[in-house]
Amino acid sequence: MKVQVKEKGKKKSYNVIDKWSDVTLENWSKLIAIKGYSKIKEAKKTILALSDIPEIVLNKLEIYQIAAILQNLSSMQKEEKSSLRETIEIEGIEYGFHPDLEQMTLGEFVDLETYIEDIQNNMPQIMAILYRPVTDKSVNYYNIEAYDGKIKKRAEIMKNIPAEKVQDALVFFYNFGSILLTILLSC
């Protein structure tokens, strides 16, 4: 979505994300941090996170423009459907979601547990643990690199993946946790 702003007789155009697949993990991290503010501040922070509109320009926009931007962002998110993608491609490298969570190593589990304590700030590290380069692949299975705990570089790469892929993984874990809780309660 383009937003036209007229300043000092000149028109300037700014971009607002219009597809959920264009929202990066870094943008998404900013979005989930927007809690506890007034509705107006939440709206402002949302637009700043999902556009290239400078704050000084945003403050000069008319209410109908803000409403149109927020309506577009709301429609974009409603259209998104979540389903876990087992493999994703980032910068020409194929990454696979951990293919067997029951086979998770102690190192993976401890690191995940540590990073989940502050999920809002550690999502790139969590994704770097769960998604690793695919080493072997056939029609029915794939293997990923062994976990060595060295995730700093991969976490930086993960900041640029589409947030929809992160959301898909979170929805998977939420559903998995809900089913597990139901099973445990019935035992």
Describe the structure.
The N and C termini lie far apart (51 Å). This protein has 187 residues and is α+β, with helices and mostly antiparallel strands. It has 8 helices and 6 strands. The radius of gyration is 20 Å and the shape is elongated. Helix 1 packs antiparallel against helix 6, helix 5 packs antiparallel against helix 6 (119-130) and helix 6 packs across helix 7. 19% of the residues are buried. The model has no long low-confidence stretch (mean pLDDT 78).
Summarize the structure.
The chain is 50% helix and 17% strand. With 187 residues, it is of the alpha+beta class.
Helices and strands in order:
Blueprint (H helix, E strand, L loop, with lengths): L1 E6 L2 E6 L9 H8 L6 H11 L5 H4 L4 H17 L7 E4 L2 E5 L8 H11 L2 H12 E7 L4 E3 L7 H7 L4 H24 L1
Antiparallel strand pairs: 1-2, 3-4, 4-5, 5-6
Helix pairs in contact: 1-6, 5-6, 6-7
Overall radius of gyration: 20 Å
- Largest sheet strand order: 3-4-5-6
Class derived from helix and strand content = alpha+beta
Mean pLDDT: 78
- Helix percentage range: 40-55%
**Element string (H = helix, E = strand):** EEHHHHEEHHEEHH
Q: How far apart, in Å, are the first and last alpha carbons?
A: 51 Å
What is the oligomer described by this structure? single chain
Low-confidence stretches: none
Sheet bearing the most strands, described? 4 strands, antiparallel
Question: How many H/I helical runs?
Answer: 8
Strand content: 15-25%
> Globular, elongated, flat, extended or rod-shaped: what is the shape?
elongated
